[in-house]
Amino acid sequence: MDKRTSQIEDISLLIIMEKRKTFVNLLSNFRYKILNTKWTKLKLIIMEEDEFDWHVAEDPADWRHVRYDPEWYDYTASVAIDRPEEMNAYVLGTLKELCAGFERAMGDESVQFIVLTGTGEKAFCTGGSVTEYSQKYNRQPWKFREWGEYYGRVFDLILHCGKPVIARINGAVAGGGWEFVSCCDLALAVEYAKFISPGPRVGMTSIGGLSQWLPLHTSVKKSAEMVLLSSEVSAEEAVKQGFINDVASAEELDDMLREKYIDTMKNLSPSSLWYYKVQHNWWKDLVWRLTWEHGKAWFALNMGSVEPSEGLWAFKEKRDPEMEKIREMVSKGLDPRVPYGPFISKCSECGAEYIAEKSKYCPECGAELSKD
């Protein structure tokens, strides 16, 4: 064979770039040729990783943010968000690992029940990471389409895995964490758990599970009160309102989950429980994907605007957001999505385009803009 020419077929390389190391996985069904004299030139599929997004490892032991235990209890797997230092907030990579955990549990017939929880004692899940929202999607709102699809898939898997999913609420619940609870079939909380929808405080909104399902658990007016006032709800009140089933001390939570719930269901027909879940979730399915598709679009179109910019960065900077100030500006004609007008100006000096109409200077070269 000519040393200068070699042909390799039916191999694909997925290069995963990380800060400390590079992983190379060989995949099938991709054709390319290597033609060079000394160093081979490869056609590569490249996926760069960062702190928010990564390729999910094949072995769950190597997952970064999710702990999967297929033997948590009899016939029971645990899928746990493992970011206690971040109050179990999730990023895109976490969502991908959650999907992988539920897919494993769904496909394993030795698993009949799934427990969704968080690690540590402070938080079950406090929703999406404000750090990711502010640093990534506030700057590139369009990318939220991908984030939103993986988020939606977590809920699809909870709804359609064919097995009872129980939320083990071991602490604070906020935003998307509350939406996870609303999606699960059953929910038990530690007595000091608190529930809150913080979206309105940071320019976001609770349209990824709460707007769809909280009214099904409680009432239209009460669910509106909880979200529109961004009010805190105790575990005891959550039981009264109907969006969780039970409350226990930290010492008794797992015993209650195992003995009262799993041990009882172990002695019931698995097919019956599965099909009841299909019928029971009809109401959730009816509203879920139709509205979440709109939700993804709303976030992708809105996350770069004034309100999320103020709210998310205020949270990061540990200060109160100035939403009333924005309200006052809106009352005087400000549009939060285009505060300086449409992007129709052009710089005559450097040729920069799509500059906000009311801008005085070019953001590229600093030249004063003509208003002709």
UniProtKB/TrEMBL annotation:
InterPro entries: ClpP/crotonase-like_dom_sf, Enoyl-CoA_hyd/isom_CS, Enoyl-CoA_hydra/iso. One of its GO terms (molecular function) is 1,4-dihydroxy-2-naphthoyl-CoA synthase activity. One of its GO terms (biological process) is menaquinone biosynthetic process. GO terms for cellular component: cytosol. Transmembrane segments: none annotated. PANTHER family: 1,4-DIHYDROXY-2-NAPHTHOYL-COA SYNTHASE, PEROXISOMAL, NUCLEOSIDE-DIPHOSPHATE-SUGAR EPIMERASE. Belongs to the enoyl-CoA hydratase/isomerase family. This is Uncharacterized protein. It comes from candidate division MSBL1 archaeon SCGC-AAA259I09. The lineage of its organism: Archaea, Methanobacteriati, Methanobacteriota, candidate division MSBL1.
